Every structure is written in C-alpha cells, then in structure tokens.
Amino acid sequence: MCYKVVERYSVCKCIYFKHSIDPCSAYGQRGHAVQEKTVLVGYVCPRHSARGCSASPDAGRWPDSGYESSKSHR
Ligand SMILES: [Zn+2]
Ligand SMILES: [Zn+2]
What is the pLDDT, as a whole number, of residue 61? Predict the structure, then answer.
C-alpha cells in the first residue's frame, strides 16, 4: 500500500504540508489505492489565528523594548 502523508493543523484541520506519495511496488496498478496518512501538528494555521500569535505563551506579556539592556549598554 502506498502512503501519502498529509500534515494538518490539529486545531483548524487546514493542510500544513502535503508530502509526496511514498509508492510501494504495486504503485500505479489498477484499483490500487493510495492510503492517506494524516499527521496532526499542534498549531492553528496563520489564517485561523486571526489575533496573531495568541497561542504563544509569551503573547500576553508586555513587549520587552530592550530599554533596560540598551541603558546598561552605554
Ligand atoms: Zn501501494
Ligand atoms: Zn486553518
């Protein structure tokens, strides 16, 4: 049986990456099906994460402008 791996975002089920078919010796014969293997990745795609990187744990923090480090740098 041939396999085709399709990676999908686990949250919104959009396609993340489509791998090429991994053919077996019977590839291309009549009635020979290609088994699709779905691999989930633990993200939401950019189109469905409308609020930017809300899934990131650092998103809720105040942005570090680098003010402290630039002060000590001088
Ligand atoms: Zn096959
Ligand atoms: Zn999506």
Answer: 52
